[in-house]
Amino acid sequence: MKLTRKLVLAKAKASDLESVKKLNCWGCDLTDISIFTQMPNIKVLTLSVNSISSLAPLAGCLYLSELYLRRNMIPSLSELFHLRTLTRLRVLWLAENPCCGTDSSQYRLTVLRCLPRLQKLDNQVVTEDEIALAVMEGEVVTTPPGSTQNQISTNGLPDAEIENDPLNYNMVETNKIREELGMKPLSRDKFPSLSSPSARDSRSSMRKSHTLDAILLLLRDLDEEELRIVHTTTQNRLQTYTMDLETLRDSLQTEN
């Protein structure tokens, strides 16, 4: 069933699509939600218990903060690619979809790696530790099959080559986080080859870089009191680090 303009206006008790901010279409047997390309101002959307398989129509709903999709027919987590532009999205309920698979832990980390701003996933609060872990261990969400996204990457590599290039995954994810932090993206030549003799060190360095990026990303959501705690903890850690260096220096001078 296709969600129509008439049905939306009737449920929302609105006169036009652009004025609709909240909509509940729970259990309406929906398969086609293309109407949302005409509803950029929607903020809270309930689409649970339907037969929706594509999230592409939601990509332009930039004010969306809560999205409920429990018990639909979303086939793959690659559909989350369409939600990456929704920077205000804080609540997502995706459980009981085919895309969730059987490994609930990996599913959760993958969703949070794709959507690190979420505060609640499947009615469970998202923790800072989960976000940091997701950056390192969550799977990369790529463009869904048949997507109209540009098939050539910014580095001139076809998608087929990108899919087989683990280095590109690290580079793309790092640059997405850097962009959110207002930092300049890194070029491909700044990433050492994974096939080089120093591949192991490179992977370790990338993991540390992702951890730092995750921490910096989380700082933006902390209030004044929480930032003061981080500041104090960081100062204490720096003092300890400085003391360790001085102890090591004194020890070396004594030996000489």
Automatic annotation (TrEMBL):
Residues 104-122 form the U2A'/phosphoprotein 32 family A C-terminal domain. Keywords: Leucine-rich repeat, Repeat. One of its GO terms (biological process) is cytoskeleton organization. The keyword Repeat applies. Residues 181-191 have a biased composition (Basic and acidic residues). Residues 181-207 are annotated as: Disordered. It comes from the Eukaryota. One of its GO terms (cellular component) is ciliary basal body. The keyword Membrane does not apply. Plays a role in cilia formation and/or maintenance. Plays a role in the regulation of cell morphology and cytoskeletal organization. Involved in DNA damage repair. Found in a complex with CFAP410, NEK1 and SPATA7. Interacts with NEK1. This is Cilia- and flagella-associated protein 410.
